[in-house]
Every structure is written in structure tokens, then in C-alpha cells.
Automatic annotation (TrEMBL):
High-level lineage: Bacteria, Bacillati, Bacillota, Clostridia, Peptostreptococcales
Keyword tags: ATP-binding, Cell membrane, Membrane, Nucleotide-binding, Transport
Designated name of the protein: ABC transporter ATP-binding protein
GO molecular function per UniProt: ATP binding; ATP hydrolysis activity
NCBIfam families: oligo_HPY (TIGR01727)
Membrane-spanning segments: none
Family the UniProt entry places it in: Belongs to the ABC transporter superfamily.
PROSITE patterns xrefs: ABC_TRANSPORTER_1 (PS00211), ABC_TRANSPORTER_2 (PS50893)
Example GO BP: peptide transport
Entry keyword annotation includes Nucleotide-binding: yes
Species, as recorded: Sinanaerobacter chloroacetimidivorans
Major location category of this protein: membrane
Compartments (UniProt record): Cell membrane
ABC transporter domain boundaries: 12-262
Amino acid sequence: MENVKNEEKVLLEVNDLRVSFFTPAGEVKAVGGISYNINYGEVMGIVGESGSGKSVEAYSIMGLLQSPGKVVGGTITFEGEDVLSYNKKQLQDFRGNRVSMIFQNPMTCLNPVYTIGDQLIEAVRVHHKIPKNQAWAKAIEMLELVGINNPDKRMKQFPHEFSGGMRQRVMIAMGLICDPKLLIADEPTTALDVTIQAQILELMKEIQKKTGMAIIFITHNLGVVAEICDKVAVMYAGHIVEKGLVDDIFYQPKHPYTIGLLESMPRIDADEYERLIPISGTPVDMLNPPAGCPFGPRCSHCMKLCLRETPPLFEVGDGHYSACWLLAKEEAKEGAVNE
């Protein structure tokens, strides 16, 4: 019975997902076989530097991959259904209605020649065949939920009349207007100053508590992850190199890349001045990735084995996994799982 209950909790399951871009220069393996689960009402952070494959895997879930990108392997299962097998009509129903996405730059995502109200109403009427006055009332409700004052007046305004933070709130309202079960937030605070970032994060925490939806929060900022997430997956060069509960990642990191990210981040609770330690080397050339561990060429603990073979994910704690050959002790080998 316990297994049945655990299965019922799983909202999204990504298993061995592989995504490649077929360019004239060769195949770019943007996502190299990642696996994770998200339960109902759970907030998961996906962290990594630019080019690590965070956004690509999110677009794969939404069915928004553009040519020459293609899912070449693995499965994406949402509430027991195979998302990759959806036809065009099923995908249209899936996007917005069951899963919604907030993109990085709200200015490029909002149409400058339509009012905010028109765009919100269109989003809800595409998925719910309701009269315009009901859609208008729903849009007003969403703007109030995301903390926009004077919603009646704001509905009649254009995107250029809003500040960056207000536009991002509109994007959150647009993402929530169809009551999705999963919200994918792709670096929603990147273009905002730190004060507005804090407000948006607080807003998302409040909305998540009110609605109970699950969230995938994609970011390169570990501070954001600590603020909002239940669990974390750290990505590097298209692979998940470490995943676990947020406390495990912050207080007991096992992968050298995760440790490097933490050491290069300033701490406001430090007792004295601490010099930041940058991660040495340069990111992987995804056209010609290394044969073994993708982080091997930049790792101070690199061994010959690391340059030869890709490590599996070793279980280093309850639900805590790390892909590093330093963990390959006899007892850890028994707990290794395929990435």
C-alpha cells in the first residue's frame, strides 16, 4: 500500500531525458539523460550556470522546443500520461491549463500593442469557454492576487506603462489564471533589482501556499533556491550532478561543482570578511564534451578515472544523490543508480 501512496503523490516524472540540437557544426547534447520527480504541491529548484540545460529541459516539458532541438530519448510523464506522445490539440490543452510557464523577460513575452486586460482574457478564454465578463472578473482577481493595485485601471493599460517588476507580476498572473497544477518559473527574477526580486519571491511563496500548486524554479542563484524551494537539482553541462532536499544541498554538499557554487556566493551571515573562490576553468564545449565526468577538467579533485568514465548518481543520504567518483566507496557503490 505504501508504494501506491507514493505513486499517487507524483505529479511529474522525468526519466532519462535526452535533448539534442542538430546544428551544421554537429550534435549539441544539451540535456544528457536527467531524471527527477516532483510531487503535488512541491517546489523544486533547478540550479546551474548558463548553458547547463536548465531552460531546455523546461521547454521539453512544455513542448516548446524549436528546431533544430529534439528530444532524442527518455520520458516525461505528467499525472501518469506520456507528454511526449501528445498531439497538437492535447499539447494546447496541456499548456496553460495543467502546466504553465513564466519566462525570463516579461517585456518580450507581453505583446506591446495589446492591453494587459486583453492578453489576460485571451489566456483564460483559450482554455475555458466562458463569457468575456467572467474572464474579465477572473483577470481582475488574478491581478489582485499578485499585488497589483487599481486592477480595473491596469487592465486597460499597455505593457510599456508598467515597471519591470509590475510586468513580471502580470506574467505570474497570466501563468496562474488557468489554475495550473504545475508552474515552471524560468529565472523570473533575473532582470529585476534585488528589492523587487525579494518581493516577487515572497509573492510566489504566498501564492504557492494559497493554491497548493507545484513549482519548478529555474535559476542560477542559490540564494533564491534557499528562499523558496523544498528540494534542489544541480545541473552542469546537461547532467544532474547532485540532487536532494534543500538543506542537504546547502549544508552537506557532496559534488565539487555544488561546493564551488556555494563558495563563489557571498554570505551575509559570515563572521568576518571571506574571499570568494571562483570556479576555475571554462564551461564545457557542448559540441565536444569530455569523455568522462563533465566537470572533470575544472575539478581540483580530478582523477584519471574522472576523465575516462562518467560517474553514476551515488546515494549519499536519504533522497540525496551526487555524481562524483570521490563517493565510490564499496558501500556507496551498492547505492549507485543510473543517471
